[in-house]
Each structure stands twice: as structure tokens, then as C-alpha cells.
Amino acid sequence: MDVLQQLLKTFFDWQAMGEVIPQMLTVGLPNTLILAVSSGILGCILGLVLAVMGISRNAVPRWIARIYTDVFRGLPAILTILLIGLGFGPVIRLLTGSTNPFPLGIAALTLMAGAYIGEIFRSGIQSVDKGQLEASRALGFSYTSSMVLVVIPQGIRRVLPALVNQLIALIKDSSLIYLLGLLSSQREIFRIGNDAAANTGNLSPLVAAGVLYLILTIPLTHVVNFMDKRMREGKRARIEPDDVAGVVGKGAQT
Amino acid sequence: MSEFKSGSLTAKNIHLAFGSNKVLRGIDLHVPQGTTASVIGPSGSGKSTLLRVMNRLIEPDQGDILLDGRSVLADNPDELRRRIGMVFQQFNLFPHKSVVDNVSLSLNKLRKMPKDQARAKALEQLDMVGLKQKADARPGNLSGGQQQRVAIARALAMEPEVMFFDEATSALDPELVKGVLSLMTDLSKGGMTMVVVTHEMGFSRNVSDTVTFMDGGVVVETGSPDELFSAPKTDRLKGFLSDVL
Fold first, then answer.
1. pTM for this predicted structure
2. With an 8 Å Cβ cutoff, are B186 and A244 in contact?
3. What are the GO MF terms of this UniProt record (chain A) (predicted)?
């Protein structure tokens, strides 16, 4: 019985949770979202550039994209964040006088997300039927216009579920920014939970942080499942009988 | 007389190889202005490849292509393709765009027509193929026959001088073939210059002005439909016709 009490107190101390939750919602949540969403958007832009380079007919951009992707997908997130954040921190401070770790944190997250998103976009674009490019070229569009107007929009649509997965990963990875040293007002969800846990010697604030992460990520997971299902089964297309087929083209009957 | 500003098309001694595989071995084809040439032959004979060479989706290794008597090999291929409409076996409509946007895209982006004007012209073109009421539907919600008619409208919107049909009815359910063939017949009778790669022997015989039989990357026989269908000269054509008729 004592053991159970002990465990409950360690993980579910309501009072410790209640004390930390307001700060988590007003400070941690906005910061986590700023980190995840901005690196998500920038990562999409970088990923699109990498994807287009990756399918280029020219070998040089293809190789650059390949090497970049291999490197940034292959490194642990914690290592990239530390190297970028600590390595470029002094330079940024020298140039701008700012010690805010957010820009470099976002940059590191973006560099990693870009590598993953680039591969997602590339696979999507390459899955578009070859006939689409051919039809567009046959109409007189250049290769570039065909890609921009016809192929890439279709490719991106197909990988939206994978893209949402990437956003989930960013929400979780944004917690690693704490390694760069955050002011009180810069702390994100995890750091606030971690600080409180360290101060009180009780893990409940971390559990609260975990619950908050799940509140963010679980709905997104279900959005993915819904989108996935809808894409597999399609919105039921209503195909009507081809009633006008007989009306046009009377010439054939003569 | 003609509803279309059609032109003549000539291919001269076209050669094309993919590696060691010689797909086209000296093809000659002449399609006078306002006439319909059908190209028949077994699968793998190079018919579809010939179409793609003539609008330079694939560049020939050797030979010349003339539109209205002028060689087009030195032209910008994108500009050449704007003068030649192409219809595919698999329709290849753009699924992420509405029917009317499929038709107006090239008018808006290539002809630089303002959006409303391009839409009006596209609706006109859709009306011609009997699908104006489907303008705002997605291609995926149309039957195969309707999709193919939209594809024809899309190609016609650019006012091409020549139209290519690459087995345009092969992917259609039997009951939908007729509507597409009727439309192609109308175009032919309207004076469009057409090259029709087809397995529809009825269309080839009744509608086209000339028939060309290809096999193994060469033209085996060419002439009027009557000559080829009633009095085939070569054993290869005789064999092919007895297989398909």
C-alpha cells in the first residue's frame, strides 16, 4: 500500500501539477507552438527545394540534395541542435547582439525537418503518373511550368498525411531546445515541467507536460488517419451515365 | 470551309532507337491539310512512339518533321506542341483541377488570356463536346467517355493545326466508345487534320482518308481505306487484319 501511495505521489501529485499548469499553458504552450510551427513551415520550404533538386535532370543538384538529406537525417536531433545552437550562438550574438536561442533552435529544427520533408515531397512527386507530365508537355508547357502547375501540386496533396506526421515529430523535438539555455519566458512545455520537477523532487509536473504533448499530438495523429483513409477510399465519386454521348457527334451515324 | 485552321503534317524518314532497340526505322507519313490519317498495326509496332516523335515529346535520331511544309525541328518544341493537340489513351486529365480549369489552363497560362476570358472560351469548348454542365466537376467524377471528351476539348482549346489521337478509345468501356468516336468523326468531317492511332478498324475504314499499317518500326503499307482493307497486298497486313477483324 505504501508503494502504491508512493507511486501515486510521484506521478500524480495534483497539487504539484496544478501549480505548474498555468505557466505551461501561458508560456510553454505558445513557445512550443512557435518552435514547431515555424520550423515546420520553413522545413516545408527547404524540403520542397530539396525535393525539386532531388528529381532534377542535372546530377549536381541531385547529389547535393542526396548528401544533405543523408547527413541531416542521419544525425541525432540532440547533436544537430547542440552544434548549430552552441556553434553559431556567439556569431549571432556578435552580429545582432541577441542571445535569444530561438532563431538558432528553429534553424536546427528546420535543417532536420527539411531533410525528412524533402524525402516526403520527392516520393510524392515521383508517385504522380508519368502521363500527367506528358499531357502537360503535349499542351505546350515547359518542363518547369509542368512541374509547378501540374505535377508538384498533385504530389504534395498525396503526402499531406506524412507531412502531419512530421509536424508531430517537430512538436516533440522542439523540447530539445532547452539544451541551448532558455530564459524563464522562453521556456517551452518540457522545460517548464522539468524545472518544476527538479525544484520539487516530484515527477508530476513532467507528467503534466506529457499530457499536454499528447493533447497536441493525438488529435493530429487522428487527422492523419482520417486523411489517409479518405485518400485511400476517396470521397465517393458519383459517376452519372454518359447520357450525352449519343447526342454529340451525329456525323458518325451517317 | 474548314472549321479549323488546320495544316498539313509530314514526317520524313524518321529513325529512333532506344539503345539497341530500333523503334522507328525510316518512317514516312504525309497527312494533307484537313484529312484524317489512321495508323494501325500490332502492339509494339511503334505507332504511339511515332506520334510522340512528331510533336517532339521524343526527339528523333534522324529525319525531318514538317508542319505546313516547313521543318519544325529547329523550333522551340514547347511552341511546336502548342500547334499540335494530343489525346491520350489514359485521358491524362489533371485530377486536381476542375473540368473547366483543365481546358482553360493552357489558354490562361500559355495564351495569356485573362482568367474570365479563358473560362468563357473553355466553356464554349466544353459545350462543343457536350459537357458544359460538368464544367465545375472534378475529372474523377466523370465517366471514362466524358473524361476523354474533356481531354479532346482541352486539346482543341489551343486551336491546334493538327490533332493526334493515341488509342483514344482503348481504355474505355465498350458502351462509351461510341460517343468519343462520334466526336472524332465530327472533327474529321469538320476539316481537322488528324493522325489517329487506333485499334478501331471501323473508324479507320469509314472515317479516315488514308490508312497506314505499321509493323516492326516500318510502314508496311499505306493507302486509301478501301485499298488496305479490301485488297491488302502484303502477308503481314493480311495476317494482322485476319487477327483483328
1. 0.84
2. no
3. transmembrane transporter activity
